[in-house]
Specification:
Strand content: 15-25%
CATH architecture of the largest domain: Alpha-Beta Barrel
CATH class of the largest domain: Alpha Beta
Bound molecules: pyridoxal-5'-phosphate
Number of domains: 2
CATH topology of the largest domain: TIM Barrel
Number of helices: 12
Structural class: alpha/beta
Distance between the termini: 55 Å
Helix content: 25-40%
Largest sheet: 9 strands, mixed
CATH superfamily of the largest domain: Alanine racemase
Amino acid sequence: MKTPFVTKDQLEAICQAYPTPFHLYNEAGIRQTAREVNAAFAWNQGFQEYFAVKATPTPEILKILREEGCGVDCSSLTELLMSERCGFSGEEIMFSSNETPAEEFVQAEKQKAIINLDDFTHIAFLKETIGYIPETISCRYNPGGVFTLGESEEGFQVMDNPSEAKYGFTKDQIIEGFQTLKAMGAKHFGIHAFLASNTISDAYYPVLAGQLFQLAVELKERTGCHIQFINLSGGIGVPYRPEQKKNNIAAIGAGVKEQFEQILVPAGMGDVKIFTEMGRFMLAPNGHLVTRAIHEKHIYKEYIGVDACAANLMRPSIYGAYHHITVMGKEAEPCDHKYDVVGSLCENSDKFAVDRMLPKIDKGDLLVIHDTGAHGFAMGYNYNGRLRSAEILLKEDGTTKMIRRRETEEDYFATLMWD
Ligand SMILES: *Cc1c(COP(=O)(O)O)cnc(C)c1O
């Protein structure tokens, strides 16, 4: 069972101040998650979580994470600028981008962010663009093939296909890349890899870490480079479905430690720092999309029309992603009605739920759509002239604060040329 982080009464009071739809974030949950992550990796000197800004690009959220000791992982110019305005600088910023425009490397260099190169050719491109190779530099690795954690009765627990992914250096390229970078003045090296997304398994980071640690030992032996950090990047998932089990971050940290002690310590590399770039794990469960049922429709199926739409949360519409829905105040009622819960876009994929068994929904009911704190608001768009919603922070003391206002018609018209 999934329980919202607000009660119905609390939410009705919040709706008095802010009209639906809006994204609501839970400060206490965000802080607690960050603390659990830092505790799970406290064994590693220099451990750093770089929050993936693209998951929730909202200054107030970034500032909370900064207070909890997190850095940021940026992938674009605007994310770099936002991070700078939130107070992040230097090695608190990881710049992991791909197909990078020159101006973005210039900005990353200006902010002294750690640059994570996505391709062998970017070595020369970076040198040409900023005039030198920074002393600390990272390369993204792509092992190719298929990444799997093994098969169980239910099939593959985790499976992804790095050979089809556009990212990273091949193994030969990363060896040559480190040699080239070293010859150009780099002194401290990082290795980064992102091989599977939304993993619901405590084995993902440890297995990935094992592979990267072995690569690090080989790179050190073959190139003589000083490996300063290994970046496990993102990919730790959340249980979107009520029957799924939550990842145990303490067990994940312990699993990485075991690999570290087996592989890096004997190679004299016990000083390597572990970095992560989690987005979804940090924020998804700490956000709700709050919407109200405004229409019921009975044709060949039963529809509930809500005031949010795919422009507020795109994942169900484009990936068929499951997001749990709680009908506020009806938690104890039987789920004996089968509904499609739909938004207003002129696009038949605009469905938050299809054939979902829920309690009887009446017009005016408040619905909480769960796990929208990451890759939720962030993927919003303006199709059909729909405007992006507000973002509201539920603070630790129970009060609320608007951390992004809703868009207005003027915002939408602001980029138009009228004559
Ligand atoms: C998207 C992304 C992340 C975050 O991924 P999550 O699945 O949200 O943890 C981390 N690093 C990079 C480079 C990314 O592109």
